[in-house]
Fold:
Amino acid sequence: MDSTALVLALGNLVLCATLFFFDYGSPRDGATVAWSLGRQFQAGAWLLLALGGSGVFPEALALPAGYALLFGGVAWEAGAFWEAAGRPRWRRPTMAALAIAIGLFLACYRVDENGLRAVAASLILGVFYLSAALALARGWRDASMLRRFLSVSGALLALVVAARGVLVLAMPQGWGWLSNGLLRECYIFALYGLMLLYAFGKLLLGREKLQQDLARLQVVDPVTDVPNRRGFFNLLAPWMSLARRPGQATALVTLDLDQFKRVNDGYGHLAGDAVLRHVAEVCKRQLRDSDQLGRLVGGAFAILLPRTGLEEASLVAERMRAAIEGSPCKTERALIAMTASFGVTTIRPDDSTVTLFQRADAALQEAKRNGRNRVEQAALVTTLEEA
Ligand SMILES: Nc1nc2c(ncn2[C@@H]2O[C@H](COP(=O)(O)OP(=O)(O)OP(=O)(O)O)[C@@H](O)[C@H]2O)c(=O)[nH]1
Structure:
């Protein structure tokens, strides 16, 4: 029995099972399901090739079927990497490429059972493996070292697989020390390498993504996808330091949705979440790129407006107020109209985050007391209290 094919069959099965039972900590996504399916195809294919080679199955049947299954498995694995890279529509082009590849392989097999068949198999496998490496290279600039390593090593090994086909075609007798036997050994080494590289790569990339998601959750609100309290305070810190130097003012606006509890009570928490997302979007549309919106708690948001004075910040807050009032949120059950109250202040040189928010919140409470759906400036509130 062909030991190479058997090792590849069992290796793929073991790796697939390892990943299947490995606890990701998150539900299995489409890419992982496709990857697992691809690996099972590959394991089945290598097993079929091993059985065909040893005479258990008629070779004339096992060989074409085994290779067709193998191409499908590798194509599906590459597709899984494309899906993970944000290209979910890989199935149709992959099916088309697969149909062409299988047709080409069967034609070569009919013409020359050994030589041309091996050339076609190497080239087809090389191209599909290269496609997986390209998927891993997507977003190269922001990619982690792990992703870059997997992409480069995957591409090199895929080139070795494809090179065997090209070299056998160009120099059937080999070239100097580069004999056909050596080429075949390199080819098998590259196939083993790809099997291990992409399997452990998938495992490590899953871990990496989980860690990135956890790190992101610490500073980003999952409902609205804007910075949460901690994230917002991180963004605020440098502006607090800058405020100690003379220069242009930086403003802070706090916003609280009016009677938000009623939305939750009347339409349910999911509708409440939809309203929060909607309000965040409406506010963002009124802000500059340099402004920062964050969600503090419940229906309360804060907006940092760099290089903005009190009057200008009040105008921005007024714009947001009018936009929220004028664009009800469409949910499955109803069109929910919302209003919000605002408190506006600027960062003072002697401010801490506590005093800054105390002032903005005092203005916000004043807006609530004055009937909601309005904007109040902290300076006015302070003057009134002092008077
Ligand atoms: N849907 C949803 N609701 C939340 C979330 N976090 C907090 N809440 C709810 O937000 C509501 C906050 O209400 P409050 O700010 O106390 O009061 P209000 O009804 O907005 O009334 P006023 O502020 O006085 O106008 C509560 O009902 C919380 O249960 C969340 O993530 N999603």
Notes: Residues 180-219 form the longest helix (40 residues).
